[in-house]
Design goal:
Layout (H helix, E strand, L loop, with lengths): L55 E2 L10 H10 L12 H21 L6 E4 L2 H18 L6 E5 L4 H11 L4 E5 L9 H7 L4 E7 L11 H11 L2 E5 L18 E5 L10 E5 L25 H16 L1 H22 L3 E3 L10 E6 L4 H7 L3 E2 L1 E2 L12 H5 L4 H4 L2 E5 L6 H20 L2 H7 L14
Parallel strand pairs: 1-11, 3-4, 3-5, 5-6, 6-7
Antiparallel strand pairs: 2-8, 7-8, 9-10, 10-13, 12-13
Helix pairs in contact: 1-7, 2-7, 3-4, 8-12
């Protein structure tokens, strides 16, 4: 992130960070020119469009770069190497203080009691503890007939956990969302059965960016006496989270989604919500989660949460402006463009767009200077079409033309202006080579064409 003070007169390369102190303010002890108070752009996020090995990053739903201030906080905390569960000496007490201070910082941001928050390895583990832990707790109390409600666009961590429980006799309803990606509240209400124990709903969808009406869902759950788990991995830092204002029993978080380190997350468990452990050991986290708590990662997660919450409202407005400008230019310059998901009830960071009559993977090859996701690459092991886009009724051929473009803290207006110019040119170039586009322009209804397969 910074060069050595001996290498240049002004030690920060403009291609590495956006703000830097002058050489005269170098800290002689650390020999690093970057003030921890500066807003730095990590050096690995290139603004050099000619360098294809350092593409402009537009995949902020997949992960976010760790904020330099977070890295600093983590590094500083390594001076404390004690085990936070060693309660007989100062080293352990110091580590405990760091963990509990971090817990309190995160709890204050989401408006909960710190005693209601446990650290986990991430949202996947938090989702598993929530769903499996509720079922296990009921089973331990003699309940065997149970029903869970979720939707068909949830993260795999939720869907696969529910599939596993189905193998063990638990009934699961996978509600279909509407064409705009949102859950119909009446359908949710009607899906509740006498044996329903839990609903698990993602607040912000990672592919579409759509925001589910969690407050209204919570009121229904409260009225019906069922528990509500919310996967908020994509929510913290993008929308306001106030657990004192909504009825939620369990909520999952993941630090690397909001500029924190990977490998650390949290789970909010509302007081009196019964959850049994699913992994066994020392039961370090409130008797529910076993394993030595990673002190440094807790510190990093708390620092990331602080930073992202401080800038959340301003960043939301900035993202709205960039999204509108980008979409206005693309839709006014190209025909047959479809924005997937509700345009109002969504985080503005996300644009999921289908470009008809081309292949998404080919478009990505044309845009090698940008790191983003194709709707075909929905998991690390398959190129099957996105199940989320399929769930909202997008035609399979159109799914394969889709890109997920997600902006974030280090996305600049120049980045998006360049991206818009490049994607318009790339789509036009690919369509010029497409026989399907020629047929469409000639007035052929491609849905009525009978295609023959040669063997």
């Amino acid at each position: 992130m910074c060069c050595d003070h001996n290498s240049v007169e002004k030690c920060c390369d403009s291609s590495s960070i956006e703000q830097c102190c002058d050489i005269d303010s170098i800290n002689n002890e650390n020999k690093a020119c970057c003030s921890s108070e500066a807003t730095c752009k990590p050096s690995y996020l290139s603004t050099n469009q000619s360098n294809s090995s350092n593409a402009v990053y537009l995949d902020y739903s997949a992960t976010t770069p760790c904020d330099p201030k977070v890295v600093d906080a983590i590094c500083e905390s390594y001076q404390c190497f004690g085990n936070p569960h060693s309660i007989t000496h100062q080293y352990g007490w110091d580590a405990t203080d760091l963990v509990e201070t971090s817990r309190k910082k995160i709890a204050s941001i989401i408006k909960s009691d710190s005693k209601e928050l446990i650290f986990t390895s991430g949202a996947t583990e938090s989702n598993n503890i929530s769903i499996q832990g509720v079922v296990k707790s009921r089973q331990e109390n003699g309940v065997s007939d149970m029903h869970i409600i979720t939707t068909n666009i949830e993260h795999k961590a939720t869907l696969e956990t529910c599939h596993e429980l189905e193998q063990n006799g638990i009934k699961v309803t996978y509600l279909s969302v509407e064409a705009n990606g949102l859950l119909d509240l009446q359908k949710f209400h009607d899906a509740i059965q006498k044996n329903t124990v839990l609903a698990s709903i993602g607040w912000v969808n990672s592919e579409l960016g759509t925001i589910q009406p969690i407050k209204a869902i919570g009121e229904i759950c409260k009225e019906k006496g069922i528990l509500l788990h919310v996967d908020a991995a994509q929510a913290l830092g993008r929308i306001k989270i106030d657990l004192s204002d909504i009825h939620v029993n369990l909520m999952s978080f993941s630090a690397h989604k909001f500029y924190g380190p990977k490998g650390i997350g949290a789970l909010y468990i509302k007081r009196k919500t019964k959850v049994s452990p699913i992994v066994f050991g020392g039961r370090q986290e409130k008797g529910i989660r076993s394993g030595t708590v990673p002190v440094q990662l807790c510190v990093g997660m708390a620092k990331a949460a602080e930073i992202v919450e401080e800038s959340r409202e301003d960043e939301y407005v900035r993202m709205q402006r960039l999204q509108k400008k980008t979409l206005d230019r693309i839709t006014s310059s190209l025909e047959d463009i479809y924005v997937n998901g509700d345009l109002d009830q969504r985080v503005p960071h996300n644009m999921n767009i289908s470009f008809a009559y081309i292949e998404g993977e080919a478009l990505m090859m044309k845009l090698k200077n940008y790191a983003m996701s194709s709707a075909s690459a929905c998991s690390s092991t398959t190129l099957q079409p996105s199940y989320v886009l399929d769930a909202i009724g997008i035609d399979e051929n159109l799914i394969h033309t889709s890109l997920r473009i997600v902006m974030g803290r280090y996305t600049t207006e120049e980045d998006m202006d360049n991206f818009t110019n490049d994607i318009i040119k790339a789509v036009n170039d690919l369509r010029d080579m497409s026989p399907l586009w020629d047929m469409k322009k000639s007035g052929v209804d491609l849905k009525k064409v009978k295609w023959h397969t040669h063997h």
